[in-house]
Write a structure and sequence with these properties.
Number of helices: 6
Oligomer: single chain
Distance between the termini: 36 Å
Number of domains: 2
Amino acid sequence: MSHLATTIDLMRPLATMTTPRRGPGSTLLVMVALVAAAVGALVLAGLSTRSPGPGPRPGPAGGGLPAGLDVTVERVVDGDTIVVSGGERVRLIGVDTPETKDPRRPVGCFGEQASNFTSSLLPVGARVRLVGDVEQRDRYQRLLAYAYRLPDGLFVNAELLRRGFAQVLTIPPNIAHSSEFLALSREARDAERGLWGACRGRGP
């Protein structure tokens, strides 16, 4: 299990854990043990917030950003998929850029441009905050996330739609920003930005 996955598991509320019914004294001991185990796992994983390294760590809400995991970009796979700290592959929620990596399909119209745009937003070494939705992973075991660039807070998923480098891909139950995304995509399409102008009549 990667450090990022370990952090995600540890961020789950203790209230979701169930234990057999015990007296007040036993319950307190169980809670203390759970907290101690969580702290120990964080130290072993090297994810303590005191660590100066670039590894993943919990990012508190504030400055207009929701709480999430702060990680470092290792590389961009294509327009809607990145690899972050520890080799974790992340699929951006709610957006779909033209295909560039599937060997069974030709490179999609505006696919290279979308990949290059994401690379310009998130160059290697960039810090980014990942915020989840209902589902943690897709069927390919990629982490599903909304990405906010640090420190300026740029909402990467939304920017891809606003600039016409992606179409909306709504897959329930991950719909936290679906209305916003649809509005941004409609605006880009009406203005013929990006793929909406370059791929008109061809299909991206």
